[in-house]
Design a protein that fits this description.
Elements: E1 6-11, H1 15-25, E2 31-37, H2 40-50, E3 54-57, H3 66-76, E4 81-86, H4 91-100, E5 104-107, H5 112-123, E6 128-129, H6 131-140, H7 156-166, H8 171-178, H9 182-196, H10 201-210
Parallel strand pairs: 1-2, 1-3, 3-4, 4-5, 5-6
Helix pairs in contact: 2-3, 3-4, 7-9, 7-10, 8-9
């Protein structure tokens, strides 16, 4: 059975970056570049029109930045996966992008093979966090004085699932580890996000890191 190619939308305001990324992805038989966007407004329009599996998103762009573009894309296409490709200078936008629904973050000096792997991870619903970015996110993700406690405690099984989410495992892999069905894993993941008032797996992974249920070495 031939696996369906992963549809990728490249969003960056620098044409040379877009062309370089396109050239890289076109060497991978399971990746298909379906479009490019030079700013956040174009990104939202193209994401709705082209229905990509993964949106590779720059953060600092004209007209509409990557954070707001991510927020709008996720509101109109909740099942989309936004993977942020950021630079050191845009740290102040990384955490807001998580809140907006981004599922992964890589730095622009990431090796090509790591970027390709991250796109595959994002398409599979996994988190893709560069360790340097994760450490910065954890500093931003420190609990506020007025942070609300979970609506109800996580069960032991939900904690087991959360630990495996933090390790980057897919629902199928979690099911195999815990000897439960994928449907049951999905139910646990949904309950975890609801109880913790989170919106995606990346936020859940960061929560697990912050409270000590996982370490960066596990991710």
């Amino acid at each position: 059975m031939v696996r369906k190619a992963i549809r990728v939308l490249i969003v960056d305001d620098h044409q040379i970056v877009r062309k370089g990324l396109r050239a890289l992805f076109e060497t991978e038989p399971d990746l298909e570049v379906v479009g490019e966007a030079a700013d956040g407004v174009e990104a939202v329009d193209q994401a709705v029109k082209l229905q990509p599996d993964v949106v590779l998103m720059d953060l600092v762009m004209p007209r509409l930045d990557g954070v707001e573009a991510t927020r709008q894309i996720m509101s109109r296409r909740p099942k989309a996966h936004v993977l942020v490709l950021t630079s050191y200078g845009s740290d102040n936008k990384i955490f807001p992008a998580i809140k907006a629904g981004a599922s992964g973050f890589l730095l622009k000096d990431t090796r090509p093979e790591e970027l390709v792997a991250a796109i595959r991870q994002a398409a599979a619903g996994q988190s893709a966090l560069d360790p340097i970015v994760a450490r910065r996110l954890l500093r931003e993700f420190a609990p506020a004085d007025d942070e609300q406690a979970p609506s109800e405690p996580l069960s032991e099984r939900e904690i087991d699932v959360l630990k495996l989410i933090a390790r980057g495992l897919t629902n199928e892999q979690i099911g195999e580890k815990l000897f439960i069905s994928v449907a049951t894993v999905r139910t646990h993941v949904s309950n975890i996000l609801t109880k913790l008032n989170l919106t995606n797996r990346t936020q859940a992974a960061l929560y697990a890191l912050r409270v000590g249920l996982a370490s960066l070495e596990d991710t």
